[in-house]
Amino acid sequence: MTLSEAQATATIIQSTAIRVQNVTKRFGRDGEQTVALRDVSLTVRPGEFLCVVGRSGCGKSTLLNLIADLDRPSEGFIDVGARKVGVMFQEASLFPWLTVRGNIDLALKLSGVPKDLRGDRIQELLETVQLSGMGAKRPHELSGGMRQRVALARTLAQDCEILLMDEPFASLDAITRDAMHEQTERIWAERHLTIVFVTHNVREAARLANRVIVMKPAPGRIGSQFSIDIPRPRRMEDLSVAKSAADLHELLQEQEAGHE
Amino acid sequence: MTLSEAQATATIIQSTAIRVQNVTKRFGRDGEQTVALRDVSLTVRPGEFLCVVGRSGCGKSTLLNLIADLDRPSEGFIDVGARKVGVMFQEASLFPWLTVRGNIDLALKLSGVPKDLRGDRIQELLETVQLSGMGAKRPHELSGGMRQRVALARTLAQDCEILLMDEPFASLDAITRDAMHEQTERIWAERHLTIVFVTHNVREAARLANRVIVMKPAPGRIGSQFSIDIPRPRRMEDLSVAKSAADLHELLQEQEAGHE
Amino acid sequence: ASTAASPTVAKAQIEMPSEVRFGYFPNFTHAVAIVALDKGYLKKRLGSKVTLTPVTFNAGPAAIEALFGGAVDVTLAGPNPTITGFTQSKGAALRVISGAASGGAGLVVRAGIGSPADLKGKTIATPQLGNTQDVALRYWLKKHNLSTTTEGGGDVHIVPQDNATALAAFVAGKLDGAWVPEPWVTRLVAEGNGTELVDEATLWPKGKFVVTNTIAATTFVDKYPAAISAIVAAELDAIDFIKANPDQAKSLVNAHIKTITGSQIDPAYLDKAWSNVDFTIDPLPSTLLASANHARAVGLLDSVDLAGIYDLSALNALLTKRGDSKITVP
Amino acid sequence: MSEHAIRPRKRATAGTERGAQLAVPRGKRLWDRAWPPLLAVIIALLIWQIVVLSGWRPEYVLPAPLTVGQTLVGQLGEPKFWLAVATTLNRALVGFAISVLLGSAIGIAVSRSRVLRSAIGSLITGLQTMPSIAWFPLAILLFGLSEQAIAFVVVLGAAPSIANGVVSGVDDVSPQLQRVAQVLGAKGMSMYRHVMIPAALPSYVAGLKQGWAFAWRSLMAGELLVIIASRPSLGVQLQFFREFANAPGLLAIMLVILLIGVLVDSIFSSLANGVRSRRGMGVVRL
Amino acid sequence: MSEHAIRPRKRATAGTERGAQLAVPRGKRLWDRAWPPLLAVIIALLIWQIVVLSGWRPEYVLPAPLTVGQTLVGQLGEPKFWLAVATTLNRALVGFAISVLLGSAIGIAVSRSRVLRSAIGSLITGLQTMPSIAWFPLAILLFGLSEQAIAFVVVLGAAPSIANGVVSGVDDVSPQLQRVAQVLGAKGMSMYRHVMIPAALPSYVAGLKQGWAFAWRSLMAGELLVIIASRPSLGVQLQFFREFANAPGLLAIMLVILLIGVLVDSIFSSLANGVRSRRGMGVVRL
Ligand SMILES: Nc1ncnc2c1ncn2[C@@H]1O[C@H](COP(=O)(O)OP(=O)(O)OP(=O)(O)O)[C@@H](O)[C@H]1O
Ligand SMILES: Nc1ncnc2c1ncn2[C@@H]1O[C@H](COP(=O)(O)OP(=O)(O)OP(=O)(O)O)[C@@H](O)[C@H]1O
Ligand SMILES: [Mg+2]
Ligand SMILES: [Mg+2]
To answer: d(Cα E135, Cα A153) in Å, to the nearest integer?
Structure first.
C-alpha cells in the first residue's frame, strides 16, 4: 500500500467486509508463548464465501475468534465495519438449561425479533436443519450431529451480515451434510451473507467456496489462495468439484512436504 | 438359533469379543419416549476392525455406550466377556484441571502402570498423536483437533482389549488424519485389539475396516453389512479403497431412498 | 438535650409523653415491674392518654443498648448495667429513679468445701466479669486474703460464665462453685447438690443490697417528671401488693415469665428464692456506691464518678407524701 | 478394575425388569426414599436412649427421648407454640426474601464489575463472619426495637452468603457459553438474565441454602432484640429454655429447628435436583 | 447491539499497547488492585464521620472514626490484644481444620451413597441452621469446660457447610467427565480422588469460604462458653465491650473481625482464582 493508511482504509472499506491487517496473536506469558498467528493479512469481499483449510492447530479458530471480536490481536488490526458478526463455534455449545426451541428462541430474542414472529421462525429453522420434531428436547438428549445442527439453526437465527463457521458439519453423515450444504448456500445467497467457513474437508471447500485460503502452521499464517469458479448450483459429486478438491488436496500435500 | 440360549452362548463366547443380542434402548419416560435402538443384534469377532456408519441420530453413540456398560439396555443383553473396554468419546472430554500430560498420566495410573514407566509411555503416546511438545499445555489452550488427539492418546494409554471409537478423527485435517489412521491400524495389529469405530466418512471406513455395518435411523437398527477385504497396508488414495467407499456411499444413498 | 430550663419548669411538670416505653426482664427480681404491668398500676398512674409499651430484654447489655439507642425510656436493670451506662455516657444517658429489689445472691460450692480457705486453687464462676456478683466474690475473697486476677489467675480462679452454663458445668463436676443471683442459688443447691457457703445479704448492713433498680433516660427524666412520678407511684403500688399478697404475686409473676420465656421457675425453687429477695422501692444507693468502690479495690474499675447517678426527687416526693422517710444519697 | 475384569459382564433382558418398574413404582419408590431417614432417626433415638439408661448423666441434664417427646407433644398442643413457630417462620421468610433480593443484586453487581469486586468483594465474606450480636447496637440505632431491627440482623447474616453464591456461580460459568452469548448479542443485563444467572443456577441454589442457614441462625439471635410478650418466638424460647437450664424444653426446640431445617433443605434440594436433571447433570449411577 | 452496529469495530495495533504493558506492569497492576478497596474505605469513613458530625446520636452511642481508631491503636499496643487475636485465630484454625476433614469426609460419603444421602443429606442443612448456643449444654456434657467444647461448637457450625459444598460440587460434575473416568477404570475412592474432587474444586472452595464464616461466627459464640483463665479472646472481648456498652471498643473489635474476614477471604479467593484460571475459566472480559 502506497497511500497513507487512513486513505487506504477509506478506499477499501467500500469493497471489503472483513479486513485483517498484519495480525499477530500470541498466547501465554513471555517465556512460554505460543504464536498462534503471525502477520496475517486478509481481505474478504462482501458476499464472498471464503473457506479456510489448514493443519490442525494452525490458527483457524483463533482467526475466527479475532474477527468475531472475542479476543484481541497482539499486533495489527481487524476491521469489519459496522457489520454484525455471527459465529458457529467448533463445539455446539448449546445452553444446557434451554430446550432446542429455547436455544433458538434466545438467539432470535437477542436479535430483537418480536415474540409473535419467533414461533414461526423457530419452526422454519428447525426444518432447515431437519430437526422439526426435536424442539422440546434438551441438548443432553441429542446426538452429536443433532447438537451441531441446533447450533447451526441458532447461528442462522441471528440477523448477521458476516457468518463465521468453524467446522460446522464435522459430525454429520454425508447425506445430512449435503442437505446442510444446500441450506447454507441458499441462505448465503438469499441474505447476501459474507461467510468464512473453516473445514478439513477439501471437497466441502470446493463444493461451497468462492475462494479457499490455505493456512500453514507453527506459526499460523496464510500459505496460498485458491479461487473456485465452478458455477452454482454445485454438487459434491460433480466432477469439477472433485477436480478442485483434488487440486486443493495436492496443494496441501505439497505445502506439507515443503514444510517438513 | 436352534440350540438353547445357554449352549449358544457357551459356543459363541469363544469366537466373539462383543455380543449384542436383541437390544432395545429407549430414552425418556413413557409418553414421550425415544427409541434409540430397536432389536439390535451384533457379534464382533476378537481382532475385528468394525466400522459403523449411519445417519446422524441413528443410535451409534448409544450402541457404543451400551457396549461400554455406561448405560443399560431397556431390553436384550450385551456380553463382552471379561474384556476390558476402552472408549474414545465423540467429544474430547479432557479433564480441564490436568495438563495434557496429566490427562494421559491419569489414564496410565488407572490402568495400573507403575510410576517409573509412565513418563516414557506418555512421551511415546504424545509422539503417536503428533503432540510431543504440548505435554505441559492445558486443554483450554489446545485447538479442537489437538484436543481430539489428546483424547486418542488417553484412550490408547488404557490397557484394553476392546476399543470403541466414536468419530475420533472428525476434527482432523486430511494429513493428520492419515497419520492417525496409520497409528490406529498399527496399534490394532500390535495389541490384537477389537475395534468398533464410528465414522461418517465412508472412505475412512473403507480404509480401516474389516467389516462395515450400516445403521438405519428412527428407530436405530442395523441395515446392512459390508465386508472389506482389501489387503493391508491400505492408503486413503488407493483405488480399491475409493471403490469400496463409493460402494458404501451408494448403499447409504439407496437405503436413504428406500427409507423415505 | 435538656430543655427543662427554669421558665418552662411549670409547664414541663404537667406535660406527659404520648408514649412510655417501659423495659424489664422476664426474671423474678423484676417482679415489681411485672406486677405493676399486670395489675394495671402503670396504666392507671400514667393515665389513659399515655400509651404504655412494655419492652422485654433478655439481659442488661440489651437494655443499655436500647436506652442508648433511644428505643426505651424507662427500664429495670441490675446495678451493673446501671453503672456501665452511666459511666460510658459520662453521666449523660441515664438516672436511677427508684429501686426494685434487694438481696438474693450467694456463693454455692460443692460438698467438701466448708471455709474460705478450702477455696484455694478452686474454680468459681460468676455471671460476668465486673458484675455485682463478680465484685462481691472478689471483694469477699480479698477480705479472706485470697488473691484473684481479672484474668482468672490467683489463689482462686474466677471464670465468667452465664448462669445456665454454670449450672450445667457445676452438675457435670467441672466447677467448684458459683456466686450467682436467685433463683440460681436455689437451683445449684437443689440440682447440683451444692451448699450455700455465703449468703450475700449477711455481708451488707441490714442485710440489704441492690439487685435491681429502675433507670430512666436522662432526657426523659428532664422532660417528663410527671411521668417519672407516675411510674414510681405504680411501682410503690406493686410493692404494696407483693407485700400484701405474696402467694398471689408469686403465681402472677411466674405465669408472666412463662408467657414470655415458655418456662416457669419450679414453684419449689421459687418459694425459696422469693424468700431470699426483698422487694423495695429503696434503690439502696449506699450499696451501689460501695459495690463500685469494691470494684475499684479489686482492680476492676479505674475510677468511678457516680455523682449525679441518682435522681430521686420524684421518689422522695412520693415517700414524703406517704409519710415515709426520704432516701438520701451519700 | 479387577472386579470388572473377572466377572463376565452380562445384563439380563430387562423385559421383566421393566414390567416390575411399571407395576409397583409409586409405593416402592416412596419406600426407597423413606426408609433411610427413618432408620437414621431410629438409630439416633436408640443410641440416645442407651446413653440415658447407662445413667451417665442425671435425667435433668440429659433427659430421655420419651421425656423430650412428651415435652414436644405438650408444646404441640399449645397454640402459643404454633404462634411462636409462625412468628419465627414469618420473620425468617421476610428476612430471607429481602436477603435474596439484596444478596442477588450485590452478587450480580460484584461479579460484573471488576472495580466493585476488588472494592467490596472480600468485604462480603468479612461481613459474613461478623456475629449477629455485634450488629445489635446498630440495629437499635437504625430501627429501634422493631421487627425491622430483627430483619436487619437477618439480612446482614444471609445476604452476603447469597451474594457469594452468585459470585462464585458466575465465576464458574463456562467461558465458551459466555462467548456464544456475546456473539448472539447478549450484553449487560441481558447477558445476566439469559446466560449468567441460568448457568450459575446450581451454585446460586447452593448459596441460597447457605443463606437460609445464616438467616435462621441470625434470626435465633436477632429475636432476642425485640421480645414481645404476646408474640412468642422460637429464638426467645430457645434462649430462655437454655437460661432456665430446661433440658427437655431445649431439646424439644432443637428438634423443631432441625425439622424445619430439614424441610427447607428438601425444598432447596428438589429445586436443585430439578435444575440439574433438566440439564442432564447429576452423579452418574448405574 | 445498536452500539455494536454503529461504531466501526477497529482495534488499534497493539504494538504500543504491548510496550506499555511491559513497561509499567507491576506498579500499575498493584495500583489497579489497590485503589478500589482504598476508595471504598475512604468513602465509608467519610459517611461515618458526616453522620457523627451531624449530631444524630451522642458520641457515646456512635463514636467518631477517630475515637474508634484511637481505641484500636490503643488495643494494638497491648500484648493482651495480640494474645486474644492469637488465641481466637488459633481456635478458628484448629476448629476449621477439623471441620474441613470431617465436612469433606461426610460430604464425600453423602454424595457417594444414595442411602446416606436420603438418610442424612437434609440433616446437614438442618444442623447448619441450629444456633451455636443450642449446643452449649451438650458441649459441656461431652467435653466439660475445655478447649474441646469450643472446638465442638465450631465444628458443628462449619462442618455441615463444607459437607454441603462437597455435595453440591459433586452433583455438578459433568456426567460426561464421569463417564470418561469410569471407562478409564476409576471407581470408588480413585474416582473421587482423581475426578470428582478436582472437578468439584471451585464449589468446594466456595463451601470452604462459607464454612469459614460459620466457623468464625460459631467461635464468637463458643468463646463465651469456656472462658479460660488468662487467655483472652476476641469473642470474649466483643462480649465484654458489649456488656460494658463500650461503643468504641465494640467497633474496634468489629473492625478487627472484618479485617480478619477480609484477609481470609482474599486467601480463598486467590485459591479459587488459581483453580479457575488453570482451567481456563472465569468471567470473560474484553
Ligand atoms: N487460549 C489459548 N491459550 C494458549 N494457546 C492457545 C489458546 N487458544 C489457542 N491456542 C494455540 O493456538 C494455536 C492455534 O489454535 P486454533 O484453535 O486456532 O487452531 P485451529 O486451526 O482451529 O485447529 P483445529 O483445526 O485443530 O481446530 C494452537 O497451537 C493452540 O494451542
Ligand atoms: N440421554 C438421552 N435422552 C434422550 N434421548 C437420547 C439420549 N441420548 C440419545 N438420545 C436419542 O437417541 C437417538 C440416538 O442418539 P445417538 O447419540 O446414539 O446418535 P448417533 O448415531 O451417535 O448420532 P450422531 O452421528 O449425530 O452422533 C437420538 O435420537 C437421540 O436424540
Ligand atoms: Mg479450531
Ligand atoms: Mg454420536
So the answer is: 58
Residues whose CB falls within 8 Å of the CB of residue A200, separated by 6 or more in sequence, listed in order: A53, A56, A167, A170, B145, B171, B172, B173, B174, B177
Q: Kindly determine whether residue C265 and residue D144, on different chains, have CB atoms separated by under 8 Å.
A: no
Confidence of residue C163 (pLDDT cuts 50, 70, 90): confident
Q: Which helix (H) or strand (E) holds C215?
A: strand C210-217
* Chains B and C touch, using 3 or more CB pairs below 8 Å: no
Higher pLDDT pick, E32 / E164: E164
Distance separating alpha carbons of residues B53 and A136, to the nearest angstrom = 27
Cell 402459643 appears where? D80
Ligand 1 pocket, CB under 6 A: A 27-28, 34, 36, 56-62, 90, 220; B 140-146, 171
Residue A8 has pLDDT above 70, yes or no: no
Pick the residue from chain B with its C-alpha nearest to E180: B93
Give residue A5's pLDDT band: very low, low, confident or very high (50, 70, 90). low
Residue E36: partners with Cβ closer than 8 Å, 6 or more residues away: D115, D116, D117, D118, D119
Q: Which of B82, B48, B44 is nearest to B193 (CA)?
A: B48
Find all residues with CB under 8 Å of E107, minimum gap 6, and list them: E162, E163, E164, E165, E166, E167, E170, E207
How far apart CA A192 and CA A194 sit, in angstroms, is 7
Q: Where are the beta strands (DSSP E) in chain A?
A: 18-27, 34-44, 49-54, 75-79, 85-88, 162-166, 194-198, 211-216, 221-227
Closest Cα to residue C56, out of E132, D232, D217?
D232
Q: Inspect the interface and report whether the beta carbons of B146 and A175 lie closer than 8 Å.
A: no
Q: And the C-alpha cell for E60?
A: 457515646
Nearest partner of D34 among E119, E120, E125, judged by Cα: E119
The overall average pLDDT reported for chain D is 80
Contacts of D284 (CB under 8 A, 6+ apart): E175, E178, E179, E182
CB contact under 8 A, E60 and C149: no
Please tell me which chains touch E, using 3 or more CB pairs under 8 Å as the contact test: A, B, C, D
C-alpha dihedral (E174, E176, E177, E182), degrees to nearest 10: 130
E134–D contact, CB cutoff 8 A? yes
Question: Does the structure show a pLDDT above 80 at E47?
Answer: yes
What's the gap in Å between B167 CA and the centre of ligand 4? 8
Give CA–CA dist D63/D79, Å, rounded: 24
Q: Which amino acid is at E281?
A: M
Write out the H or E segment, with its range, that includes residue E278: helix E247-278
Residue with cell 441434664: D61
Tens digits of per-residue pLDDT, E157-179? 999 999 988 888 888 888 888 88
Residue D5's pLDDT band (boundaries 50, 70, 90)? Answer: very low
Q: State the pairing for strand pair A18-27/A75-79.
A: antiparallel
Supply the residue whose CA is at minimum distance from atom 8 of ligand 1.
Answer: B141
pTM, two decimal places: 0.85
Q: Using a CB-CB distance cutoff of 8 angstroms, which residues of chain D are in contact with residue C259?
A: 80, 229-230, 232
Q: What is the pLDDT of residues C113-141, one digit of tens each?
A: 888 888 888 889 988 887 888 888 998 99
C-alpha cell at position B139: 486443554
Mean pLDDT of E172-195: 87
> What's the grid cell of residue E276?
479457575
Return the sign of the alpha-carbon dihedral for residues E74, E80, E82, E88. Answer: negative
pLDDT at B106: 92
Residue with cell 473456485: A228
Number of residues written out for chain B: 260
Q: Scan for cell 429455547, then name that residue.
A: A102
Tell me which chain D residue has its CA closest to the CA of residue E200: D172
- Residue A27 CA: nearest ligand 1 atom is 4
To the nearest whole angstrom, how far is the Cα of E226 from the nearest Cα of chain C? 8
